[in-house]
Every structure is written in C-alpha cells, then in structure tokens.
Amino acid sequence: MVLRYFGIRVTELERSARFYTELLGLKKLREGKMHHGGRWMLLEDPRSHERLELNWYPSDSAFATPYEAGEGLDHIGFKVQDPASTFKRLVAKGAAPALIPKDKNGVKGIYYLKDPDGNWIEFF
Length: 124
Description:
Structural class: alpha+beta
Number of strands: 8
Number of helices: 2
CATH architecture of the largest domain: Roll
Number of domains: 2
Radius of gyration: 15 Å
Strand content: 35-45%
Strand order of the largest sheet: 2-3-4-1-5-8-7-6
Order of helices and strands: EHEEEEHEEE
Shape: globular
Distance between the termini: 10 Å
CATH topology of the largest domain: 2,3-Dihydroxybiphenyl 1,2-Dioxygenase, domain 1
Low-confidence stretches: none
C-alpha cells in the first residue's frame, strides 16, 4: 500500500487551484470530470512530490454535503496492487465499506472504506 494523495472538497475549483498553484507553488498534474458531474484536479508539490486532489461537486451530486470550514477532507487515496482484494481483506478485519464500483455512484476499479471517524479511504 502506498499513500498517494489527500483529496479535499472545494467550493470553487478554479479559485482553489489558483491559491494552491500561484500562492503555494503546487503544479497541476491533470484534471477531469466525474461521471456524476463533479470535477477534480490533481496538484503536486515539485519538491516533495506530495499530491493534493481538489474535488468540486455540483449541488445535485450525492457527494455535495453542506460545506463547513475545516471539514473539507474528501478522501485519502492509497495505491494498491489489487483494490478489490484489499477492500475485502480490510472489511473482513472490521473496516466499514463506503462505496464500491457496482454502487450507483461507484467508479470501476475504485473502492472506498470509512476509517473509525467516518473519513473515506480510497483504494485504487
């Protein structure tokens, strides 16, 4: 398992991107649209290579919960060899599932669990 990035929810993607790139010096690696209408942008620190994913959700998305400052953690992403077996192994050990590929808002090959405080952990 390799911790790959942290994803945070943002209220305006472009404004947040400018803040993290122009003020803090992160570099944009890539961006895209989610199948449910959301948008994401992956940034990287050029020195440490740590990554930050900015996630914006439209108001009609299942993931567009009320935003409160300080509670914008969206998920933590881990790169693993086999996401499905990692998910099954951790659920068998007591982890709570959050979202799997066959769910309505699921994404092929990506699994989510909840940590003990309800924070989402992605395995891809």
